[in-house]
Design brief:
Shape: globular
Family: Belongs to the major facilitator superfamily. Metabolite:H+ Symporter (MHS) family (TC 2.A.1.6) family.
Strand content: under 5%
CATH topology: Growth Hormone, Chain: A
Transmembrane segments: 30-49, 55-78, 90-108, 154-178, 190-209, 244-266, 278-298, 310-328, 334-351, 372-396, 402-423
Number of domains: 1
CATH class: Mainly Alpha
Domain Major facilitator superfamily (MFS) profile: 18-427
Protein name: MFS transporter
Largest sheet: none
Organism: Arthrobacter halodurans
Order of helices and strands: HHHHHHHHHHHHHHHHHHHHHHH
């Protein structure tokens, strides 16, 4: 390997630093992203006060969805940087952009102060957030997989969804504390801004840690031998288009499930089920905490039994249990709601905990960052970012609170087919070309 250390020969100290940097960076990115979803009702009152509650909420989620539309573009850009210049460079800049945009959201005047410029400025910052986030998940996954020993790549890559959930968990805790201690007027006036202000210091810490790491052994090898592809995107579409299509399909359950179950759920419980707002955050917080534990178990299961078996099991469970689960959410019983959310989160981890290693292993080193970023962000742009909006619209048009469950089932069916058509990737050597 031209003098570069193989992953199996990397020191445990280096691996700990890699895991820490990946966890903290991804945590910061998704805390920033999640706060918007958890405070959607308050943000609606600040930026769309002249709309009726449901229309305003749909407009708020429309901004959430629009920011996802830039993610495929971000996937191309960050993928190119990650595969041409290095994984570390892409990850260091992506966290800086995300933190800056999130901090700026805290400073935007309300609609009452500057009129339509308020939601337009919010939209601009959301677009910057979407662009920066598009390089984070893929880059952190590639970084971890390329540093991990072959027999533990699933466990190492599970750090990425675990850190994502930890960011959501922290956002949920912050939202629960704020709504429990501030009245609605205080939340509208200034309380909603507090979580966004945390972005600057957390982002700077994450960037500092990442700049202190070396790039991965796999990337350093192809860089030293001058084997990096000059146009990773072109190479991806010419040589790996089938894997790209299958990867997009495999991501679908993650895209819809993650944002419906872990981001949109507090809004669903408070607006559609009638659960008290603070209790809805508490239920989601507990579900997120158990989700993080299940994620690492799933990573180990995928290392032992293979990626395909675990991913297909997740899809089958969602096909069978999703609609009954949403039936139970409608009972309004907090204990039942809590149990259902934990169950849905556990089912989701079978997909989310396996997907990062599965996608990273699908593509060779020369286009790994690009292949992961493009497939992951295309599916998330079309189906993930729109999930809260589609769920709200489906309920409004159908009159049924079960509509999000049927939407989840459709996503699970497509993911099942895509994974079934894919090759097993666990324990096999990472391809360079």
């Amino acid at each position: 390997m031209s003098g570069q250390p193989r992953p199996d020969h990397v020191s445990s100290g280096t691996r700990r630093r890699v895991v820490t940097a990946s966890f903290i960076g991804n945590f910061v990115e998704w805390f920033d992203y999640a706060v918007y979803g958890y405070l959607a009702v308050t943000i609606t009152a600040v930026f769309f006060p002249e709309s009726d509650p449901q229309t305003g909420l749909m407009l708020t989620f429309a901004l959430f969805a629009i920011s996802f539309l830039v993610r495929p573009l971000g996937g191309f850009v960050w993928g190119h940087i990650g595969d041409r210049i290095g994984r570390r460079t892409a990850l260091s800049w992506s966290i800086l952009l995300m933190s800056l945009a999130t901090f700026c959201i805290a400073l935007i005047p309300s609609y009452a102060a500057i009129g339509v410029w308020a939601p337009l400025t919010l939209l601009a910052m959301r677009v910057v957030q979407g662009f920066s986030a598009s390089g984070e998940y893929a880059g952190a996954s590639a970084f971890l997989v390329e540093y991990a020993p072959a027999h533990r790549r699933g466990l190492f890559a599970a750090v990425v969804p675990a850190s994502t959930a930890a960011g959501l968990l922290f956002g949920s805790l912050i939202a629960a504390v704020l709504t429990a201690n501030l009245d609605s007027q205080q939340m509208t006036d200034w309380g909603w801004r507090l979580p966004f202000l945390l972005a600057a210091p957390m982002g700077l810490i994450g960037r500092y840690i990442r700049t202190k790491l070396e790039d991965t052994p796999a990337f350093r090898e192809i860089a030293q031998e001058d084997e990096a592809v000059k146009a990773p995107v072109g190479d991806l579409f010419r040589k790996h288009w089938r894997d790209l299509l299958l990867a997009c399909g495999a991501v679908l359950l993650n895209a819809v499930g993650f944002y419906v179950i872990l981001s949109y759920m507090p809004t669903y419980l408070s607006q559609e089920v009638g659960l008290e707002t603070t209790l809805s955050y508490v239920a989601t917080t507990v579900a997120l905490a158990t989700y993080i534990g299940f994620i690492f178990l799933t990573g180990m299961l995928s290392d032992r039994y293979g990626r395909r078996k675990v991913l297909m099991s997740a899809s089958i469970l969602f096909l069978v249990l999703t609609v009954p689960a949403f039936h139970l959410l409608g009972t309004g019983s907090f204990a039942v709601i809590l149990l259902v959310q934990v169950l849905l989160g556990a089912m989701l981890t079978l997909n989310d905990g396996t997907l990062p290693s599965f996608l990273a292993e699908m593509f060779p080193t020369k286009v790994r960052y690009t292949g992961f970023a493009v497939s992951f962000n295309l599916s998330n742009a079309i189906f993930g970012g729109t999930a809260p909006l589609v769920a709200t619209w489906l309920i409004a048009t159908s009159g049924s609170n079960l509509a999000p469950g049927w939407y989840l089932m459709g996503a699970a069916a497509i993911s099942l087919v895509a994974v079934a058509l894919s090759a097993e990737t666990s324990r096999k050597p990472l391809r360079h070309a």
